[in-house]
Amino acid sequence: MEKLIGILSEIRPDVDFAQETGLIDRGVLDSLDIMEIVAEIGDAFGVTLSPADIVPENFNSAQALWAMIVRLQG
């Protein structure tokens, strides 16, 4: 999870990813941020996200992203 927070903080250093739970709902992340996150997650964790994985529920918080990564690695 710490590695994920580091990746997210590099993309958007102005966001407190450890606490924020409305990254999509509040418009904190835009589509370009999401595409960059998808690419970085793939490289860092060796997972491939399908279009079905790229939904707001999976990107609203670092915790949701981490749960998706763990599921995809499983």
Give short descriptive properties of this protein.
single chain; 74 residues; mainly alpha; Non-ribosomal Peptide Synthetase Peptidyl Carrier Protein, Chain A; 0% strand
Describe the overall structure.
By secondary structure, the protein is mainly α. It has one domain: Orthogonal Bundle (Non-ribosomal Peptide Synthetase Peptidyl Carrier Protein, Chain A), CATH 1.10.1200.10. It is 55% helix and 0% strand. It contains four helices and no strands. The protein is globular and about 30 Å long. The two termini are 15 Å apart.
How would a crystallographer describe the biggest sheet? none
CATH topology: Non-ribosomal Peptide Synthetase Peptidyl Carrier Protein, Chain A
In the predicted model, the low-confidence regions spanning at least 5 consecutive residues are none
In DSSP terms (H or I, runs of 4 or more residues), the helix count works out at 4
Structural class: mainly alpha
Number of domains: 1
Shape assignment: globular
The span between the termini is: 15 Å
Summarize the structure.
By secondary structure, the chain is mostly helical. It has four helices and no strands.
Q: What is this structure's SSE topology?
A:
Blueprint: H1 2-11, H2 31-45, H3 56-59, H4 62-73
